[in-house]
Specification:
Elements lengths: L2 H6 L3 E4 L4 E3 L7 E16 L2 E8 L4 E2 L1 H6 L6 E14 H10 L1 H45 L4 E4 H8 L3 H13 L4 E3 L2 E4 L1 H21 L1
Antiparallel strand pairs: 1-6, 2-6, 3-4, 3-5, 3-6, 7-9, 8-9
Helix pairs in contact: 4-6, 4-7, 5-6
Length: 212
């Protein structure tokens, strides 16, 4: 049986614009292929939402629930009147037997999506570590005013529970923004540097909120 004949056994959904197909966290056992229209994928975090993609004809989504029985990792909303093919496990099983090229293409797209998700998570973790470094330096600096603060990188890394290399990367980034000087393994901060740190902390926190 060809892939086309397998897909012919899959039901079509005709959905008007504005339809919420599923929400993040919902159970699901099928994936969808877009024949017509566009679908918007959205990630929810607390009270914030972030659009992670707009898909059109030929694109598919919902494959993690199909493959692993996982809850929906994002919400899906129809942007334009759409026709979707709903593929459940039995139809997907026939596709695997009929046309492995289709499956390989699907796995390639899935890998790209997971790689992108890993990059986003890695970026979030790096920003959180940077915020931790900035906050620690500000607290130490305020406690030692009006004297200049001098932070030993090795000791500070132990206090924060992070690798020295990770700490140094964050400190070097702050120094490039004008927050103090780094020499001989010590980060020196005066009153002006603390002001710069506070501004950098605000900007980085705002960036964190925008990408959450």
């Amino acid at each position: 049986m060809s892939t086309q004949r397998s897909l012919a056994q899959a039901p079509e959904l005709h959905l008007p614009a504005g339809t919420m197909l599923f929400r993040q966290g919902d159970p699901g056992e099928e994936m969808f292929v877009i024949s017509r229209g566009r679908v918007r994928l959205v990630l929810m975090h607390e009270d914030h939402e972030k659009e992670v993609g707009v898909l059109g004809p030929g694109d598919f989504f919902g494959e993690l629930s199909l493959l692993y029985g996982a809850p929906r990792t994002a919400s899906a909303q129809v942007l334009e009147d759409a026709t979707l093919v709903s593929i459940r496990r039995d139809v997907f099983g026939m596709m695997m037997q009929d046309d492995l090229d289709v499956v390989f293409r699907m796995m390639n797209v899935l890998g790209q999506r997971l790689s992108g998700a890993n990059d986003r998570v890695r970026g979030q973790m790096q920003r959180l570590a940077y915020l931790q470094i900035l906050g620690h330096a500000i607290r130490r600096g305020l406690a030692e005013l009006p004297a200049e603060t001098s932070l030993d990188l090795d000791a500070t890394a132990r206090e924060l529970g992070m690798a020295v290399a990770e700490l140094r990367a964050g400190v070097e980034q702050a120094v490039l923004r004008g927050a103090g000087t780094l020499r001989d393994g010590r980060w020196r901060l005066d009153r002006q540097a603390l002001q710069t740190l506070a501004e950098e902390l605000y900007r980085t926190a705002a960036s964190q909120d925008d990408t959450a």
